[in-house]
Amino acid sequence: MNAALSDVAAALRSADDLLLVTHEHPDGDAIGSLVAAHRVLAAVGIDAPMLVPTEDEPAAEYHFLVPWENAVRQLPEDLSGTTLVMLDCGNLERSAAGERGANASAIVNIDHHHDNTRFGSINHVVDTASCTAEIVWNLAAELGAEVDQLTATALYVGLVTDTGRFMYDNTGPAAHQMAADLIRIGVPVAAMFRRIYEGIPIGKARLLGRALNNIERHSDGRLTLTWLSREDFDQVEAIDGWSEGIIDHLRSIEGTEVAAVIREPIGNPEIKRISLRAANDDVDVSRIARAGGGGGHRGAAGFSSELSPEGLREFLLDQMAAEPSQL
Q1: 108-120 pLDDT, tens per residue?
Q2: What is the 3-state composition of the chain as percent helix, strand, coil, each rounded to the nearest 5?
Q3: Residue 50 within any structural domain of the chain
Q4: Cα(111)–Cα(88) distance, rounded to whole angstroms?
Q5: Where a domain ends, among 179, 196, 213?
Q6: pTM
Q7: Gap between the Cα atoms of 1 and 3, Å rounded
Q8: Is 120 found in the same domain as 15?
Q9: What is the torsional sign of CA 23, 139, 167, 185?
Q10: Residue 176 has what DSSP assignment?
């Protein structure tokens, strides 16, 4: 069953030891929701530190949001007395806590992914929400928490990034109303746009150049993909998080149905991380991602794989062929 927001609020108020967690490789909604939830709970007297693993920090453009003094850099060994609050996590395995999260005394699962596995002790999954930040915004109202400018800014970052600057299909009236309310609180919209989308490091621009140079088209252009090897990252002195946003360039190429960015993460070149985007409603890329052991949204999803480059191409093409759509 899907718990009411009032049940979530009651569980958070009654828990003795909370730890806020989001998914691995956190994006804007993950970090925005994490920071906003921390500040919302603090506003009503609830101490809830955030897990931000040292080896899995957010991209540089989101660093300014994080109150690092309240960040836990490693998952505690003993979770037996801890309630984990999972934000924006479609499943336990892809959370920053990983499978060890199952050792927690309780899990409060707050998310908006339609394929969420409902792994929590309490599940509040709203797949019609534009982003998890929207749910945290509603949770603040349920708790009676005052939302100040810094909290509003974190929520706005989650909202604007997960809706693709309000151009994705998940952008509904509630998203625009939330944006208006946050702007009234004092979110500096122009400054946030510049911080997130402009002033990028030269290494990030050069990484984009590598990705565009490596583009492949398959199935009459319906699959557009690119590869980023460890060598690509190292030669332009780029960090993993700088690959975010590249996929939108592929998605916009004429004729594309599915865009894919395949990259080698730090420390384990045998593992490939694959990000997927759908260019229209005909394809559910979350189904493709689930077939690869991952998940996500209908229009944006991802998974990890040990397949070879040839194996990954074949997998993606096979999945697209099986997709019950115009493909």
Answers
A1: 999 999 889 999 9
A2: 45, 15, 40
A3: yes
A4: 5
A5: 196
A6: 0.84
A7: 6
A8: yes
A9: negative
A10: H
